[in-house]
């Protein structure tokens, strides 16, 4: 049964010591909105636990602990965002636990009167090995935009990953991932919006390998002097021909460094 890599995340930042980190100024954008915007130049560190009572095609549950960091920097006069996502399987129907494949992207962003756009490169790193990953190196373009109208944020983020190297006896990775972005501020640090919803098309099988629909409820609080966003997320995945979680419940902690 196919295990699409979209369920293992998307991310960024290697060799950070060689890059100049920007002060993270968020021009006229509410902090709660910026926390939900992948194009925002906001440094953050995120830890998320996702539990699924049943994976499609099995009677088994799955649990994933995911670390993600986003680090903004300026290079050659342009604003960039480096993001690294590292998932770890702590419970899986296959019985193997440990790191899964990681992702990294570098996005160059541009400010507009209506919001922000960005484009860059996303890479797949085969950190999951034989049992928890695709054993493929992947590379491809990424593009996205976000716009706000008062307390309402909307946009979309697209990533494309295509095999460039890897084990010959493993299937190539050729995926396109679309993430819709919707977030509504409710006041007093509360907001609601879409979950991560990584809608994935698998070009190898000419099929949608992940069709999640879900939402989130978030609260912005203070951890000492630092803002911390706490979110609860739920997703249902309609791609029942693939080994993806049928229902997924997540708890997310995102430390913001504005």
- As residue ranges, the low-confidence spans are 1-29
Instruction: Give the termini distance in whole angstroms.
Output: 43 Å
* Shape by Cα distribution: globular
At the third CATH level, what is the topology name? Porin
CATH superfamily grouping? monomeric porin ompg
| Content of β-strand | over 45%
Instruction: Please state the second-level CATH architecture.
Output: Beta Barrel
| Number of alpha- plus pi-helical segments | 2
Topology:
Blueprint lengths: L30 H5 L7 E10 L9 E14 L2 E14 L6 E2 L2 E10 L3 E11 L3 H4 L3 E14 L2 E15 L7 E14 L2 E5 L4 E4 L4 E4 L1 E12 L2 E12 L9 E11 L1
What report would you give on this structure?
By secondary structure, the protein is mainly beta. The chain has a single domain, classed as Porin (Beta Barrel). It is 3% helix and 59% strand. The protein is built from 2 helices and 15 strands. The N terminus is likely disordered. This is Transporter. It comes from Halomonas sp. RT37. Keywords: Signal.
What key attributes describe this structure?
mainly beta; 3% helix; 258 residues; Porin; globular; disordered N terminus
In short, what is this structure?
With 258 residues, this protein is mainly beta.
């Amino acid at each position: 049964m196919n295990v699409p890599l979209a369920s293992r995340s998307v991310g960024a930042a290697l060799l950070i010591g060689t890059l100049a980190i920007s002060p993270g100024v968020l021009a006229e954008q509410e902090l709660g909105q910026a926390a939900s915007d992948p194009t925002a130049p906001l440094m953050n560190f995120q830890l998320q636990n996702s539990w699924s009572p049943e994976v499609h095609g099995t009677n088994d549950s799955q649990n994933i602990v995911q670390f993600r960091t986003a680090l903004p920097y300026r290079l050659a006069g342009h604003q960039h965002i480096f993001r690294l996502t590292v998932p770890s399987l702590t419970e899986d129907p296959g019985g193997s636990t440990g790191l899964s494949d990681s992702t990294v992207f570098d996005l160059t962003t541009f400010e507009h009167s209506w919001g922000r756009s960005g484009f860059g490169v996303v890479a797949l790193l085969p950190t999951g090995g034989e049992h928890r990953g695709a054993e493929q190196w992947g590379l491809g373009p990424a593009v996205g935009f976000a716009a706000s109208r008062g307390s309402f944020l909307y946009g979309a983020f697209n990533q494309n990953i295509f095999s460039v190297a890897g084990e010959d006896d493993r299937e190539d990775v050729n995926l396109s991932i679309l993430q819709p972005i919707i977030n509504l501020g409710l006041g007093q640090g509360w907001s609601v919006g879409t979950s991560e919803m990584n809608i994935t098309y698998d070009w190898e099988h000419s099929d949608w390998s992940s069709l999640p629909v879900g939402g989130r409820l978030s609260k912005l609080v203070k951890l000492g002097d630092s803002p911390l966003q706490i979110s609860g997320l739920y997703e249902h995945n309609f791609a029942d021909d693939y080994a993806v979680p049928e229902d997924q419940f997540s708890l997310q902690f995102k430390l913001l460094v504005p």
